[in-house]
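Sequence and fold
=================
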Amino acid sequence: GGNPLACAASLATLQLIEEEYMANATEVGEYMLEALEEIQARHPSLGQVRGKGLMLGAELVKNRDTKEPAKHLRDRVEELAFQHGLVVMGCGASTIRMAPPLCLTKSEADEGLMIFEEALSLAEKE
């Protein structure tokens, strides 16, 4: 049920994904995961960071040893990040999901991670 214009756009999108965006997602995703691990070292409420490519998760906990979920903190970080221009979403009991576009640059990732850490710091102080 497609039309020629929609089919051409789809083919061009698939070509971009195959030729550029998948490699970029791998590279920038690894970069972001390393940066999240550095943020984790500074914030005891950041229990686990994980992901593949640009689909990343940062789990918020009340205590790293017990791994008790910090749902309220997660919700507050999500709200504060949005107020500062970053859209993230909750996932599961207490995880922040980050799913940026496949064309994300490292400088854009840095900006988003800076906002995320600032939101986390503000939420932890409340």
User: Anything to note?
Assistant: The two ends are 53 Å apart (CA to CA). The longest helix spans residues 4-42. The mean pLDDT is 94.
